[in-house]
Design brief:
The chain is mainly alpha-helical. It is built from 16 helices and four strands. The strands form two sheets. A two-stranded antiparallel ribbon has the order 1-2. A two-stranded antiparallel ribbon has the order 3-4. Helix 2 packs antiparallel against helix 5 and helix 4 packs antiparallel against helix 5.
């Protein structure tokens, strides 16, 4: 990794898009929305490797623009006011990604955000409907130091490919063993009220059924899987929520290469993908109290 300090203008991003209108799974069978909110929380919790894991789970599932949208909007709503030089630096890096598509630039964003001071009050005031909490925030004078920060405010980090190569999609493991080798973190499931995910209305049993028996239909929401399915001639069957293949041979070839068998995985691994259904949900007040002060 190298360091540099630069300054250019950054455009304003007005909303934090961590929800999607369609339920679906990522490359390693996490719920797409859950990965987005897990990324936000991991950054706020200053968990570097976990934040990188969630960011690249989205990125290599094919949601490249979504990753940058989330990071840029977090930057705008939570970081810029306390880190005025960080925006220009990361804006230049985003332009570099636009020009080159270098996946390590996602890591550059994460490394430079995860230990910085932040202020969630603007985010809470924009999305929370609790007027008492908003009034309380308005009455506060918030100065949020970066507890245990390892970065000086004028020091910026540039990540190299070797620093994040371990997050690239793995294809050389037998498919029924793949999740056991790649699932590293349990998805964060206690913020459904904060991020208002569409699947928050589903019961755990419903999500479990989709994960067990209809995963291939819903994983098609991820571009990496849509390409794989298309390569083997698979077509969406909206009536049965399944994938139909042109021939039995193509279907068998597909499953031989990509059959993840989520219903056959250990219970602990399944819960890392979709949670337990027993998570106690965080309120807006709890969210603000946890992340406004340290």
């Amino acid at each position: 990794m190298t360091t540099e300090n630069i300054s250019i203008e950054i455009c304003e991003i007005s909303t934090l898009s961590v929800e999607t209108s369609d339920f679906g799974f990522t490359r390693y069978l996490y719920i797409i929305d859950d990965v987005k909110s897990s990324l936000v929380i991991a950054i706020l919790d200053r968990k570097l490797d976990e934040a990188l894991f969630w960011a690249y789970e989205l990125y290599f599932s094919g949601f490249k623009e979504d990753v940058f949208c989330i990071l840029e909007q977090m930057l705008d709503m939570m970081y810029i006011s306390l880190n005025p030089t960080l925006g220009p630096f990361l804006a230049k890096k985003k332009q570099e990604w636009d020009d080159t598509g270098a996946y390590c630039i996602v890591g550059t964003f994460i490394y430079n955000m995860v230990y910085r001071s932040y202020d969630v009050s603007r985010f809470v005031k924009k999305y929370c409907k609790d007027q008492d909490l908003i009034a309380y925030i308005d009455a506060q004078t918030i100065t949020k130091p970066a507890s245990g920060s390892r970065l000086k405010r004028n020091l910026h980090i540039t990540v190299q490919p070797k620093d994040v190569v371990k997050y690239i999609t793995i294809n050389h493991i037998k498919p029924h063993e793949l999740l056991r080798q790649t699932i590293k973190y349990q998805v964060i499931k206690n913020t459904l009220a904060i991020f208002d995910h569409e699947h928050g209305i589903y019961t755990y049993e419903q999500i479990q059924s989709l994960y067990w028996y209809h995963w291939l239909y819903y994983v098609n929401k991820s571009p990496i899987w849509a390409e794989r399915i298309n390569t083997y001639g698979g077509k969406l069957n909206h009536e049965s929520h399944s994938i139909d293949f042109d021939t039995v041979d193509l279907e068998e070839a597909f499953y031989e290469k990509y059959g993840l068998e989520p219903d056959e995985q250990p219970k602990q691994l399944q819960e890392m993908n979709i949670g337990t259904g027993l998570e106690e949900q965080m309120s807006w007040t709890e969210f603000y109290e946890k992340y406004a002060y340290e």
